[in-house]
Amino acid sequence: MDLIGKKKFDFIKNRRIVYIISAVIILVSLISIIFQGFNLGIDFAGGTLIQIRFDKSVSITEVRNVLSEFNLSRSTIQNLSENEFVVRTEKIDSEQRKEILSAFQENLTDLEILRVETVGPVIGENLKKLALYALLFAFIGIILYITMRFEFKFSIISILALSHDCLIVLGIFSLLQKEITISIIAAVLTIVGYSLNNTIVILDRLRENIKFKTREPFENLINMSINQSLSRTINTALTTIIPILALYFFGGNILSDFALALFIGMIAGTYSSVFIASPLLLEWNKIFKIHQKGIRITGKKGKK
Amino acid sequence: MNWTKTLRLASVFVVIFIAIILSFPLNEKINLGLDLQGGSHVILECVDTPNAPVDNDAVNRVLEIIRNRIDQLGVSEPVIQRQGAIRILVQLPGVEDPEAAVDLIGKTALLEFRNEEGETQLTGAHLIDAKSSFDQFSRSIVLIEFDKIGAKEFGEATKNNVGKVLAITLDGKEISAPVVQEPILDGKAQITGKFTVESAKHLAILLRAGALPVKVEILENRSVGPTLGRDSISKGVKAGIVGLILILIFMLIYYKSFGLIADFALVVCMILIVGALAGLKATLTLPGIAGMILTIGMAVDANILIFERIKEELRLEKTFRASIDAGFNKAFRTIFDANVTTLIAALALFYFGSGPIKGFAVTLSIGILASMFTAIVVTKIVLEVVAAKFSSKALL
After folding, report:
1. What is the pLDDT of residue B370?
2. Probe site for chain A from B220, B237, B244 (most A CB atoms < 10 A)
3. Mutate which of A101, A184, A189 to test chain B, going by most B C-beta atoms within 10 A?
4. Which runs of E-coded beta strand occur in A21-157?
């Protein structure tokens, strides 16, 4: 057949290798999440964040020395440039903050306060709950929608692919001990929407092919569908990643972690849409012994 | 060109025109969030103390006093809202010094006059006026005036402490410790502390608005100075322009004439997003800018989907016109399904997110809708017009 002849890659034949790669990445992510945990930002853990710009360049050690006078030596200090710093401490009130800032001024140099955020433990717990609700709401909404438009098994497979993507993003953030803030949760939710977008394009193609090419073995249909949408998948991944990279390099430090999460998520999402989602559909059919359109699924490459 | 096509093309230009009208001039029509224009977002909670338990009445009075203080600070369009039983939300957009402003709203501001033994002689409860001024050495001072009862009490206090220190404290902290030269009976006094012009002004505001009846605690405070806000805007805009230009070039190189059409659609999409933001009076936040940048990528997605489909149809030896129709029909459902799922995620963010994240959800949603509109309506009309003049070979 003409279209099979144009097939470039055999995604089904090599699916075991892909499963192993994904399994390893997910295992590493899970181990890191379980044993190392997340570096929760003040949004969730509570605390105070101060972003300051000194008039002259200042070293991290100098900043830390001043903080240790206030018993805050355990704070995290991040230098954004040689005179701009983000300091995260336990929750301190405005009086303490003023004292610290004037100590900076006396011991180091004049400064400007760019940003101050203080989140109490009650609000932090509340935000944790809201983030969890948002994730749950999105997942349930998506299952319902896909079940309505496609089939239940499509939605389960989409959710598996999604969880795969989210786990990788969260796992890498845990591994690198990057801060988890509300923005990162927003990025994860965006990835949920986007990764699904890719999966749907391929599954949609599959649905169409199942309808019109009833005599093809299911394996071939899957391969055909992935290959048919491959140039589209790669191009849209590129056009989404280009602005994200622009955001990462030019968008400033507040957005850079957000862009990083999106970047990892887009890569994982594109990969899972192509390599994971559709092959999983084959596994599903095998497990539940569904013979797609009466064609026997042998587990080997189908014959015409 | 036939009648309906002309009409549809015209309506597209009308929509673009309306979007431009809505968003011009940009700096007036686009509502900036606290993280971009600078300002403070504060959540306060009234807490019980043994002397002053919190009840509904106390919370209402706190609300009123805080509103009073903020009004006097001269913040334009502040938000002061009660949230639930004991919490108060305060948003102060565009304040030059967010730190000082937050300080001003969270202070109890209990003014006391104490003798050398530390006993309270009288409080600021009977003040009728307080204003900042300068003494003869041009130091900043605060002038206060008591009502009749207050004047009498103040007279007593000064009479009993002639030649001794009568300390003036605010929330238990000493601001100044003058020695009483002679009894003051007219109910007027001046506080000389180590004031700056600004801090004298703030103390006067606090004293005028009165002390809070209960203690309040700051649960959450997010303040952004105006410098960082401006910085964020310029960096966000820069990232957006770089991303946009790269995408325009990519589409042009990869899809040639089709790419040019997609680029036109993308620019239209951006104009529509800005127009919708202005028209809906939505607030643009920093994550919102990120959402717009993200839509740049997503907006061409639908176009790519359509073009790839049309190319496939052309390979089946269909006519250009028929390929366009078939390509659009087949791509439509996919585009729709894929975008609805992103909308579901955006809805979840809008519903459960707070300020800046809500802004992200809003721009993302507007972006998705605008990109669907431009792909399905704008791209299609332009393609049809082009198809009537050129062959597919000339374009691909």
Report:
1. 93
2. B220
3. A189
4. 39-40, 47-54, 76-79, 84-89, 111-119
Digit-coded pLDDT (tens) for A219-251: 888 888 888 888 888 888 899 999 999 999 999
Residues 6+ apart with CB under 8 A from B6: none
Query: Does the structure's ipTM exceed the value 0.95?
Result: no
Band of pLDDT at residue B1, cut at 50, 70 and 90: low
Whether A295 shows a pLDDT value over 50: the answer reads: no
Query: Does A120 sit within 8 Å of B218, measured CB to CB?
Result: yes
Domain borders along chain B are: 3-33+225-395, 39-224
Q: Which residues of B touch A98 (CB under 8 A)?
A: 99
The model scores a pTM over 0.95: no
From chain A, pick out residues whose CB is under 8 angstroms from the CB of B269.
Answer: none
Q: Which two tokens stand for residue B293?
A: 């940048």
**Phi, psi of B96, deg, nearest 5:** -70, -40
Give the pLDDT confidence of A2-33 residue by residue, as tens digits: 343 454 678 888 888 999 999 999 999 999 99
What is the mean pLDDT of the segment spanning A175-182? 92
Q: State the pairing for strand pair A47-54/A84-89.
A: antiparallel
Q: B3-33+225-395 and B39-224 share one CATH topology? A: no
How do the domains of chain A map onto residue ranges? Answer: 2-41+123-294, 47-118
Higher pLDDT among residues A37 and B100, named by residue: A37
How confident is the model at residue A291, as a pLDDT?
60
A228 within 8 A of A3, measured Cβ to Cβ: yes
Give the closest-approach CA distance of B77 to chain A in angstroms: 21
- CB-nearest to A255 from B250, B254, B286 is B286
Whether domain B3-33+225-395 has CATH 1.20.1600.10: the reply is: no
**What is the pLDDT at residue B89?**
93
Structure confidence at residue A1 as a pLDDT band (50, 70, 90) = very low
Mutate to test the interface with A, among B194, B294, B300, B354 (most CBs of A within 10 A): B294
Q: Kindly report the nearest CA distance between residue B109 and chain A, in angstroms.
A: 14
- Which among B205, B302, B280, B236 is positioned nearest to B19, based on CA atoms? B280
Report the alpha-carbon distance of residue A209 to residue B364 in Å, rounded: 32
**Which of B251, B286, B348 lies at the smallest CB-CB distance from A138?**
B348
Start-to-end CA span in chain B (Å)? 22
Residue A303's pLDDT is what? Answer: 40
Residue B50 to residue A166: CA distance in whole angstroms: 49
Q: Which residue has the higher pLDDT, A303 or A262?
A: A262
Domain spanning A2-41+123-294, CATH class: mainly alpha
What whole-number distance in Å separates Cα of residue B166 and Cα of residue B153? 13
State the fold for domain B39-224: Gyrase A; domain 2 (3.30.1360)
Nearest to A113 among B99, B296, B360 (CB): B99
Q: How does the average pLDDT of chain A come out, rounded?
A: 85
Q: Which residue is it, tokens 């042998």?
A: A298
Fold for the domain defined by A47-118? Alpha-Beta Plaits (3.30.70)
**Does the CB of A143 have a partner CB in chain B at under 8 Å?**
no
When mean pLDDT is compared across A84-98, A189-203, A270-284, the lowest value belongs to A189-203
The beta-carbon neighbor of A137 closest among B244, B290, B348 is B348
Sort out which chain B residues have CB atoms less than 8 A from A200's CB and list them.
334, 337-338, 341
Whether residue B242 and residue A250 make contact (CB cut-off 8 A), yes or no, is: yes
